[in-house]
Amino acid sequence: GLLPPVPLPHRMWAGGQIDLRGRFHLGDLVTRHSTVRDVVLKTGRSGALCFVTVDHVFTGPQGLVLQDRQDIVYRAPRHPDQPAPVIPQASVAQWSYSVMAGPVLLFRYSAITFNGHRIHYDRDHAIKAEGYAGLVVHGPLQATMMLEFAASLHGAPPDTFEYRGISPLIDGAAFTVNAAERPDGLHLWTAAEDGRLCMEAQAAWK
Q: Which of 6, 38, 98, 188 sits CB 3.0–4.6 Å from 53 for a disulfide?
């Protein structure tokens, strides 16, 4: 496969950035060129971490269409006695809507994105093997919802969309997709039912 053989068992989607340079058209022959740009080993409060940056470049008949940077982090198993990190609460939104995070939604997104990571559909594995409180809502699913929300609010998809994960979002409850205008663009975020910040993003238009 493309990703390097990292000797750490738990993989998470840390964030990424999308730069839209053109448009895809029905019938286009599209080529994706993928490159592992960087691999960095670090030690954090949770132990050993490995950050992997992957670049995807999409071209069509008219040339470059989209650049997609993906930031992936691998970590060691969390120790039971390790204190939980302090997660910030989400701010007040100008615009917001609610989504029910259920297993059917997660299974469908895993299927259409060919994502076989078991934390999104195997509840026993997510809880017992990886230490989550339930099924984990995909980071890219949250990013997709924020990107679509930004496009609907501004009437066009953003030219640049950068996002990063803050804390895991677990299924079984509603979460919100939120947005607020800023001088440099649109700030977006997802929040759990208890108000905990889960993912944030920045969308900008030229």
A: 38
